[in-house]
Amino acid sequence: MRTLTFSGYTWWVKESSEPVGPGPSLFSGSPRHVEVDRQGRLHMRILRTEGKWTCSEVVNSRSLGYGTYRFYLETDVALFDPSVVLGLFTWSDTPDYANREIDIEFARWSDPGAPNAQFVVQPAVPGRMVRFRIPRGIVRSVHSFRWEPGAVRFSSRSGSDPARGTLLHTWTFAGRDVPVPGDENPRINLWLNRGEPPSDGKEVEAIISRFRFEPLRGR
What we know:
mainly beta; globular
């Protein structure tokens, strides 16, 4: 399995020979699909390869636990085709706490009129998720969740400074069924809902300029 270094961490690059979840989609580990540029930014792409649409995903090699997970984007997510999904999340291969999946996702789930962003503490049922819109023209943005005992606190802001950018949306999920840490990893993926090609037939790129993790104090 191919690996790369991004924001001081080692990440595995997902690859599949057949459609797999999420989607199901085909995933490629090639440098055309996933690369880090000279500025240290991560580029992820959905490309048409030999007649097939292929997607991208990276998995942090470390399990980080409680703390703040912060993702810096240089992409106008409002321009994504309705079939495209960009996910910033944690995931565990063990099923406890719905795979410890905590999501920030940019997607319209194949519905052009739907909101294009959501926060979720899986499973995605009423009360455990909130959907909202990010307007066009926001090229730089910062998206984060603070995971702590009994709560997950989400935030999306425009700009490159999480303390000063315009607040786009915030939401807190709290309760006894908040996941506790296990073997989850931070992950980033760019994929196609239901495996459907982009309706406009265009290839897709997302640029993640940085990933930052701040452990919970006292942990």
